[in-house]
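One record is given unchanged without comment:
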Amino acid sequence: MPQSSITIKVPATTANLGVGFDTFGLALTLYNTFTFQKSTHFSFKTEADSPIALPTLSPQLNCPDSLIFKTLQRFYQALNQPLTPIAVAASVSIPLGRGLGSSATAVVATLVGINAIEGNPLFTQALLELAIDIEGHPDNVAPALLGGFQLCDEQTAHALNWCEDWHFLALIPTFQTETEAARKTLPDHYSRTETVSALRHSALFVQALQTGNAQLLKTVFEQDAIHEPYRGKSMPHFEPIRNALTPNPNILGTVISGSGPTVLVCYERTATSVIYQQTQALAEPLGLTILPLTLDKQGATIVTT
């Protein structure tokens, strides 16, 4: 049934998880919330409710390059209907430009929210395909929409098990990274050795997830040959943190979250206090904010009042 107003909560995401470039994505327990309401004109307001400093969100909804406005246009084009004026209010907790899927939350929330306002004419798969087309790659929008760990191809996503005892610390710097700029640091071609390594380690990563094998996961988590060797060069905090944490037997992997610059530490829950203390000692001198996070299972949800 169509609604005149709706509020959508969407989780942060981490993409790639080391060896799963443009393929692995996972939803995290940090959220942006968006309220959509039919109106006589377009409007957009936002407030920051983040554990770390956020830059001002300057684009207005009626700007052609605004991601929310672009998503609205694409949704109504898919329905072959004229664009409906929408008032949007956003409460932003996910830091922008830090590799935690902030842009994916805007795309997914808009699609889910406007679809509900219009009476849900599109099924979830159609929303996912639209989101992937708008975002340009699936590994953030799929877990933002569906929750959990998602193994993604060009137009679909497949949920895989993620052990609930595997938790995260996000180490977030004060500076931002643009995804497209980060992609330009990657080579156009890879050697056969690099390609075989990528295939082998991503397959073993999936096997570790399916069997809940923490030790297997630890052996492959940090073996990426596609993006981390190149992106890490612009992140001076990455290698020192990884080198210090990798020997800890309870840390399963230290990787770049998405295109960075956030570093994600995955560890076994039983060692939470020790891991936090060790990581805090490394992060504080580098000016990094630590956020403890876990797996979000729900994805985008309608907030009921």
